[in-house]
């Protein structure tokens, strides 16, 4: 008997039943399909029932429930009715319950439903609902509308029930009791997720992130995070999977809810290190989070407590990758602080807020970083102080004085500094206390950064000095009154200004070559030959493309030595990857729409490339030639061959008037040209008698023909001694 | 011992709102009078700075918003000459808080050349003339043209870029050193109006030059990355003495301090460079400005320790430095 017909029959029976035992019998029978009871149904049947018949069956149960059934079931069997909601798939039961409560006027049925829902929540079934949806989100076909419904139902449950039940609401459904339950449910789901991740299963926690966001959006951060955060922080410390999950959880909160989540975290977490654990480097990855943390909370809102600011800025200071952000924040703060508008149009609390942020930033930044921000500090000090001092409000004036004193101290620690006379009040004392950060431990990081820079800075001047000494000696001999009484300052910072960096990769170079930026083009042209030679593998990947760009490059920008640079680059490409490039170039030589100049260039490139290929490969042979002498002279420790020593001494004291004979004859070696000579020669000679529309070597363009014959001659000459088979 | 780091500016002057084209100190004053710094701006204004209060005393506006590119005191601190892009050279009377133009001379040249003033009894002013390469020297009292130096029709020296008028002890005629667009530096005899010597110093137009008449030695800068030092021997021939390379090309202004000890250059690379004048030994590279430096000037304080260096830049700021003052 199929599940469908069983359910159909059961529903029919239930509508006509007037007998207690029959009712209990039918219900107990149906429980089989939830996998409960003495004789549970097969797995396939259970899944079919849950998938298609569970929700309708529950709805039917709710419809039938009334005074009659309560009488029939009595209190001991009422649990049977409840168990259908508690033991089945939680997500469907949850929806049916909420739906029924919404549709039912106050009556016995409503009471039953509310009781079941209470049990449902107390059992912790909310976690099952969330987990169920998380799993559904992994399915190939997702139902975002349905998930949206769940999200709304879960988040609005307190309001919804309060509306439905009016004065009869239960304390379980009060927000202050309900949302901690949501927090517990989220923890439970995260636990399940971590377990299944450990088993190597994929999981989605997007829904959890959405839930988190939406609850926070409703202003329930306190209830939610008071449960969530303590557990989360302890778990994170011990478990890297939890760490990753937590970053993902916060990171995938939709942008529209990111702000309440972050505000909640910042408010609830004890300090910057905890925040850093929870957020990771979210501020770098997520634009919205970045905006909230570095702009909105610092610049646009000013009601926050100073602990919160310390947490935010401390977080930026702890994350090593965020420290530049901290400097930037300080610059922005200084700019804002020193702007006329803020003094004129902002209330005192906002000015105090900005000053606090500045003080915290300064307290967090290292000496070096502050040194780097000197121009901004000076600018802020010089522009801002005057504006504050001109204000008619005493607290504003005082604030300006305190900040100016602090800034001047940072700009020049040893030199003269600003001091003002003012009476300290609580605000001022509190501000000054902010300069000493309470709980920051990035000291190891700046120390590391300092150490290498010092060590690298020290030896350089020494070397310079050594170079200078002999110079001054000779100088004093020739001219007594020189400039020596004027001691030079350190000029190591005087480096060449380059607006654009030379490209480091061939592909970057190619991009620069086709750009319109003249400076880029020039730098690319000059660095190209070296790059080609240095990375022959990378060149081979793009050789023909590069040759194409170079061949069609026009000297419209007036770069110095343009033609030579281009020729050198093209020759380098051809030498690095001779076969495809020569094939391409020769193909182009006979194709349409090239100027005579370009055709001649191709010939030049081919000839020069062949020349270079036919030269001896230089580096190895040289090293070998230089080796024996070096080796013999450096052999100090071993047994000394006296004859050799004597010969060497004689050799060193003998003057040679002609060095011609001394040089060893060049060692013969196969060159690289003979392998590709054929690729150069034959394609080039092949087509000269087939004129095309724009190029007729045998006719008007005989100039090119002459050059071509010359090039062919060069190619043949260079291929001397090459075996014919290779040609 | 490692060389000390370069100094920071002593202070800077801001709120100018325009590029600073030229600077001129007047600090030869007795105590109650404040030392002054005049700055000519691209907005056509001339700011008069009190160096004690570091604020502007007066702002002169007389060039119709045309850029001012040369200023100099004539006899005393109350008499100022300024050259503007409106092709006028104004003489200002600043005595007792006045700021009025007492005299104006029309210039025919639209070039870049700044004037040069020589005060040896009578006041002589060298200024670019009507023709491209022409320089005129006039007597300020009588407005009479003393000399009109024109290289001749067939010479291709280009525009005159910078001039320096000076009076040698041995000669009766004042001499004029002029840098031209083709990179040459020429020595003229003003009264005889003839070329005494000419050397090619640069491949690019000479942007600025200064001459030390005590040691008969001068320095010129162009848009290249070299400074050229040349001397004048007894036969009044110019000879190249040394070319000093600098890291980044472009010299907008070069000036020798009055005690002939150091030279300062204003670089297009935003840096001010200091060299020892005797051997052009590089002494310091001062970095402060964020845009190219247009001009440098040394102050003429009576007490050497108080001497200052001022630099005006495209970034609307004047930086004031105290460097090598204790010698």
From TrEMBL, chain A:
Record keyword Metal-binding present: no
Start and end residues of each stretch annotated as Disordered: 445-488, 616-639
Composition-biased stretches (Low complexity): 446-461
Keywords: Cytoplasm
A family per Pfam: Telomere_reg-2
Residue spans of biased composition, Basic and acidic residues class: 462-472
All residue ranges annotated as the TELO2 ARM repeat domain in the record: 325-419
InterPro entries named among the record's database cross-references: TEL2_C_sf (IPR038528), TEL2_Regulation (IPR051970), TELO2_ARM (IPR057348), Telomere_length_regulation_dom (IPR019337)
Entry's localization field: Cytoplasm
Domain Telomere length regulation protein conserved: 503-610
A GO term for molecular function: telomeric DNA binding
GO cellular component: cytosol
One GO process term, biological-process aspect: 'de novo' cotranslational protein folding
Family according to the record: Belongs to the TEL2 family.
Protein name: Telomere length regulation protein TEL2 homolog
Species of the source: Pyxicephalus adspersus (African bullfrog)
From TrEMBL, chain B:
Keyword entries, A-Z: Repeat, WD repeat
UniProt-listed Pfam families: WD40
WD repeat ranges, renumbered to this chain: 199-240, 286-327
SUPFAM superfamilies for this protein: WD40 repeat-like
InterPro entries membership: WD40/YVTN_repeat-like_dom_sf, WD40_repeat_dom_sf, WD40_rpt
PANTHER family with a match to the protein in the record: GUANINE NUCLEOTIDE-BINDING PROTEIN SUBUNIT BETA-LIKE PROTEIN 1 (PTHR19854:SF1), TRANSDUCIN BETA-LIKE 3 (PTHR19854)
Descriptive protein name: Guanine nucleotide-binding protein subunit beta-like protein 1
